[in-house]
Amino acid sequence: MDYSPKKVSYRRGGGGGRGRSGQEGSSSRGRGSQGENIRGKRGQLSFRGRGDVKEKISSDDQEKEHSKNIHDDSKQDKPSSHDISSKSTIPTDLECLKIEEPDVAPVICRGKLITVDEPNFKSYRLRTNDELTIGKDLPIITNVYNFKVKENLYVDLFSVHFLNSDKQINEKFKNSRKRAVVMKVLADADNKFDLDNFVYDDSNLLYVLSGIMKNQKYEFIIDQNAKVINYVRFEKAKSLLIKLTNNDNISHFESKTFLNLMLTQFAKNPYNENYNKKCTGIGNQLFFKPSEAYSNKVSLDFLRQIWPGLCFSISLGPRGLPILNINQNYALFPKSDLTAIDFYCEANGVKVNTLKLENLSMNQIQRQRMTNLLKGLNLSVDYNKSREFTVYNVIDKIPSKTMIEIEGEKMTVNDYYKKRYNINLKYPNLPLIQMNPEQAKIYIPMELVKISEKPQKLKQKLEGHLIAKMVQNCTKLPEKKFSEINNYLKDIKKDGDIILRKFGTDIGNQIKTTGKILPTIKVRQPVDEKKRSIYDNKLKNFTYGIVFVNNPINPKARGNYIGKINHIINNVRKYGCGFNSNVAPLYDCNFNSRDNLHEVLKCRLEKLNDADKKNHLIIFIIRDGCTSYGLIKMYCEQKEFLGCHSQVLKSKTLEKVNVSNPRCRVTLNISMKINGKLGGLSKDLYYEDNNQKLIDFKKKFFNEKDATIYIGADVIHPSPHDSGQNFIPSISAVVGSMDILGFKYAISGRVHTTTVKQNKQAMETLQYFQEQIHERIISFKNATGVVPKHIVVFRDGVADSQFKITMDYEVYSIHKVCESINKNYKPTITFLVVQKRHGVRFFDPKQSIDKFFNGNVPPNTVISKDIVNPELLDFYVIPHKGALGTSKPCHVYALYDDWKLTLDEISLLTCWMANICTRCTDPIGIPTPCYYADLACTRLKHHYIEKKELLKKMKSQSKITIDIHPSMVNEQFFV
Length: 975
Known about the structure:
The chain is α+β, with helices and mostly antiparallel strands. The protein is built from 22 helices and 40 strands.
């Protein structure tokens, strides 16, 4: 299904430009457009793409082509009730709006889109002479380094194929074997290749210094002595010039990927004398093996330990020169000296030295627990160190009684190991471990199995208490973090010097820069009654009830909890939410997860009409480990069910509420959250400074006569584990402001019918973005009585590699929505991408006697030079206060902006929007619309999972929907 737009180039006032692509810290490869637009006659577009194919297209003809193809997915799906092409969905007052024409009408030129991977050129918002002119200077040390790459560095790119005996591609060849196989055949080849000339991605790509491998194809036998002969083949794909540019093309990605991998290649050579002794290389990361003396300190549990590491990410910096970000990270690795007997003891909850294992066995529960512990680990055996295994199951068979047939002779497993390997088993009654694949029937006695000596990074999810333990081990203040990075870097420069010099590269000095501390944003709570009156008018006659979930507690404790909730409700009233003067709950009842929650609640609310339900809040008290959260939210918020607000509180959180302390932080945060959830204004933001720029800023962005709608957008994709019956599709959420001040938001969510992927990476485009934006604009108009003249989008989670296609599709979608509302409706659009997954960190090196100073930069610090893109307008901002560890900045790109905002204005807006979150008094780390979109995606995922489970229990074949109840559709229920 092609739901993408046709190729489009917008030019609205600003000039054109090209943007970089590439995802920081990732070795994935993407594709982008290599075309360029040449401005022709008005209303026409000349497009030059790959192969210099030229075409001249009338914009009128392309308009027809767009109208035919923009809703391709509607051919397979039922039409939406919010189909923006249908005029029946547009309110008459909006359709007849008299909207002033802008001084310069935008010219929209449309070209033809051939594939979703090749969006047309679009004008980025470029960095011209943009500089911050507001705020105080702050000297800052970064974890970004200068990086040198010699000119005219060419590498040959070979594809790597692992073949079976018939020389067909072997899809089942183990990934854990690939590195050793490739390096061995290259080292043993007749040419005796120098392995320092190779960079391998441990999968299917091999980069070779140009001229080393002269043939187009090489083929080697993996093991001459093996029973079954397998092969590895290298085929030359291209010669690649290593050059970072600001173009969206594949050469930039391949250059970036190569350089990131090259930096860790020294740790991936099995023929290196220090291989896996000091550190191990995985992709663009290095992990350092803890010393014996330090091993216990980094131990997470009996199985796992925490390894510190470094992650390398090359990008294009100022003046078009490459820069290198080196960040400290951590990962879990299994302890290499563990045997399967250790897992047996863990599964049984005992210690090895307390057991006499000769006469012990395992029951089904213990075997399953041990299987779960071993799943996903590479295992080895001493009698054949060349092989590795993964567990299929710990089976209900023991060596002394299990018969096998070898070359026509039947014998027990005991006898086989005695005859073949001269091994006398010590524990013949312990279960056998069956290895993958199942059909091979590989049974190995437990006492012979151990964890592979090769380091292996674990990807298992941790339990809550282990997460806390890991966070405690990994949290470091900036000074210590930067010191450790530089200490590791000294070793890397020494150990990797040969490869760095081979490829003409060098890691330079750490970059120091100057940031700007923007004016402090003050918070006033509660908000003045006059200022919040427009919000309070809608918050009348609220009621609430209490439900205790799986929580059998004594009457005294129950009464204590109810008293604390009454105290919280009284605090909510101070923020303006109109609960009845009698703050007692309408009911308090119990719910057992075996019961039907819908029926339990339905009977409690049957006396309330729809309006009363909308103004009813159910507070659920749960314990740690409760799994009913998603079920609660689905029944309260989904279309088919109740349509009321809910607040889930853990009993341990309630215990922290201090009714005698009027400034109890827990009470304040819960009260703010509930007030915001119900639609109230929880805080007032202001500047103490009377700077005219700050006055102009507030007047420009929060002006009823020149209104702005703030949009947050995000999409979550299925993980590799979400397959089969556990499959969860991509789910997107678009939140839009419902007030002039940008404090209240409502959601438009969709389940995607298709997850488009670029290589292995899911595309970030929102399939139903047009419908979602349409709903948000209409809701804003209905809530405020004015039409937004400016649309500011905070787009979450877009990697550099997908900038162009996301901007092309989503900005175009906004234009189409506005056109469908009224042909003269042309609001300005500012499209900001907010990235959180990057490794850039900052350190304030000043000496301070302030006991609260920890080396983190102050809130509202913006860095807009020395480590940013040379052409695109981007900057780093830390809007929050870093109390623990090192503050993580958000990276903001202004990809598209026909409002022509200044860097000052975009920076001020980003910091301001980080302060409006209704869940806490302090600012958060990203603009709130992004955060709310993320929360909304997670909430809708809960809805989907619970709805799917409900339909399964009902044996229903109905389509899984996540439609929100009409009473909740314009409410901020998801915060």
